[in-house]
Amino acid sequence: MIRRNAFTLVELVCAMLVMMVVALVIGTAGSSFYNGYRRSNEAVAKLKERMAIDRVWDSALVNMVPFKWKDENNESRYVFEGKNDELLLTTLRRVYSNDPSALTFIRFKVEDEKLIAVYSNYPILPWEEDEPSAVTQTEVIAQNVSHITFQYADQIEANEIEWLEEWDEEEHTNLPLAIRMTVEWKNGTKEYWLRRTCGVNYNSNFGNRSAATSSRATRSSNRSAGNNRGGRGSR
Fold this sequence. Notes:
Distance between the termini: 146 Å
Radius of gyration: 31 Å
Helix content: 25-40%
Strand content: 25-35%
Shape: elongated
Largest sheet: 5 strands, antiparallel
């Protein structure tokens, strides 16, 4: 007589439990791997956006120069516009063969939840409504941006500055000492980029105590020399 081996109900239940545990472990591991991979991609994308902002912002502000253009009244005005939510500036760039100029005019603004930079080799004049669209190039620097704000540093005393929401051309005869850009993302977080401008002029020593002391000593020496010359003249 042939004896047939069969699984009991208890054995079947145990086997099913083992398979469920194995499936749960595999599913948990797969879910963790997927979430980690997704977070890694998000972190890399975020880092790339921040690096892109830093690259463009640093290049624009470090190479920023004062540049003037005559308006319709034949008055020379800076090609610079410092609004609270937009910025137009002039910057130097690397020159290649057949390039028409070593200057680039850049406007930073937000459109359709994107932080963009509009480049032009021809002056983008802030007092004209229409920009030279035929010679502009737009770069999308970052996405998912709610809005941006700019603040402008104005030197009011030897070692004191004031942050302004807008830069009024009629009240200033120069450019801001520094510009701070605040980027607010759609998730509500904010990040800040701060750069100095025009670092090759007299403002390059701003905040340097030794330079300020030297400057005061020079002014004092000049005043003393003037007094001495005045004294000799009176005799």
